[in-house]
Design a protein that fits this description.
Elements lengths: L3 H12 L3 H17 L3 H13 L29 E3 L12 H15 L1 H6 L7 E5 L6 H12 L3 E5 H4 L6 H14 L3 E6 L2 H9 L3 H16 L5 E7 L7 H6 L2 E4 L5 H12 L7 H7 L5 H17 L7 H12 L1 H4 L5 H11 L6 H8 L3 H9 L1
Parallel strand pairs: 2-5, 2-6, 3-4, 4-5
Antiparallel strand pairs: 1-3
The structure holds adenosine-5'-triphosphate and magnesium ion.
Length: 369
């Protein structure tokens, strides 16, 4: 059944006698149905909500629109962006154990009411950490899409205000905004708040920031799902670290994940040599693999080809992985030998020819010398 999580949320909010939440979830459902082309059903549902004259939110009496997103007092920049990620646009490839934990998290959130009734509360918070480009922000989108909730993304560096005392205020405004309706609050680049430690001139300021963060996390309503992502989990305050019920360590993609990502990124431009391409991308992040694949698809499209050129794709991969050596200011002969030394399998004569523009005959000669 489509939108089952939303139906369950509406039922749960009704049982909990929280009309503001019923209204908020119902409006989200109507918007989703309208997106699906079910405009008549969406209109009927909206009319039912409006005629019931339900309160708009529990605390302020107004549904907060993206326009009312709080801003930093000094820079006037918005403290977060709102989006509505769609499952159909997301294909995430995670290692089986991580995938299992993510699905467990989602299922606990979806069944929060049931679990709370049984006396085992759910703490809907997840910290996502790992190297750059491995899908941390993407995972936040995926969770919001699965839960069919709006995603409020805040870059933590933009929460840090140059005005003394305003960082804690920004955190409070953002959390208050997120508490007003069911949503996923995603604190991206989370370590920036921990890094404030070094940047702030006044020691007391850091304490205020961390204390404010902890207080705000603790008072989030269960309808607000808290996600945070960082590349530097070691910089986080231990008390902040402990607040997250789920901690996902997203690592560089495995062979299997890379193969799936390559096939998906190349689509019908997929070449016959996926295995070799997968091997060549060992050690690369999902973001870089995607970048290489998309560049080759673009080149194939412009050249009017039906599939990507394997050598061009391998060259792109090599270029990303060994950029410095490929562009080093050393003679071609020395460069070719060094590239062969670092990755004999990847730097075939044709890839070297593609990358350096040196003729295949000359490359063979150099390699045989
Ligand atoms: N595991 C993955 N599965 C599918 N796509 C992925 C994966 N990892 C990365 N990608 C692709 O790479 C893009 C960039 O990833 P994302 O921004 O989520 O990385 P990140 O871990 O948040 O990086 P950073 O630490 O730099 O913020 C995604 O939008 C997605 O297209
Ligand atoms: Mg990110």
């Amino acid at each position: 059944m489509n939108h089952l999580p939303l139906f369950l949320k509406i039922i749960e909010s009704g049982i909990l006698a929280n009309p503001a939440k019923v209204a908020s979830y119902t409006r989200t459902l109507a918007a989703k149905l309208a997106d699906d082309g079910e405009t008549k059903a969406a209109e009927k549902i909206l009319r039912a909500v409006e005629s019931a004259n339900l309160p708009k939110t529990r605390t302020t009496g107004q549904v907060l629109s993206p326009q009312s997103m709080p801003v930093d007092r000094d820079s006037r920049f918005s403290l977060a962006d709102e989006s509505n990620p769609e499952m159909s646009e997301l294909n995430i490839y995670l290692e089986p154990l991580i995938q299992k934990s993510v699905l467990e998290f989602i299922s606990f959130v979806e069944n929060a009411y049931l679990l709370t009734q049984a006396g085992v509360g759910v703490s809907p918070s997840m910290l996502i950490y790992g190297p750059p480009g491995c899908g941390k922000s993407y995972l936040a989108k995926y969770v919001a899409a699965r839960l069919e909730l709006p995603l409020l993304t805040a870059r933590c560096d933009s929460l840090i205000s140059s005005l003394l005392g305003s960082t804690a205020k920004n955190i409070r405004s953002l959390f208050e905004h997120a508490s007003n309706r069911p949503c996923v609050l995603f604190l991206d680049e989370f370590d920036a708040l921990a890094k404030a430690r070094d940047d702030q001139h006044e020691v007391g300021e850091l304490k205020r920031v961390v204390v404010s963060l902890l207080q705000n996390i603790d008072s989030l309503p269960s309808g607000t799902i808290l996600l945070a992502a960082t590349n530097h989990e070691d910089l986080l305050d231990p008390a902040v670290w402990r607040r997250f019920a789920y901690k996902m360590n997203i690592q560089l993609p495995s062979n299997e994940s890379r193969e799936k990502l390559i096939k998906q990124s190349l689509g019908h431009f997929c070449s016959s040599n996926v295995k070799a391409i997968t091997t060549a991308t060992d050690g690369m992040s999902g973001a870089l693999i995607k970048q290489a694949c998309e560049a080759s698809v673009r080149a194939a499209l412009i050249a009017g080809k039906e599939a990507v050129d394997d050598n061009k794709l391998l060259s792109k991969i090599a270029e990303i992985q060994y950029h410095d050596l490929i562009h080093a200011k050393i003679p071609d002969e020395e460069k070719i030998k060094k590239l062969k030394e670092v990755n004999n399998r990847l730097f075939t004569t044709r890839v070297l020819n593609e990358l350096l523009g040196v003729s295949t005959g000359k490359i063979s000669k150099i390699l045989n010398s």
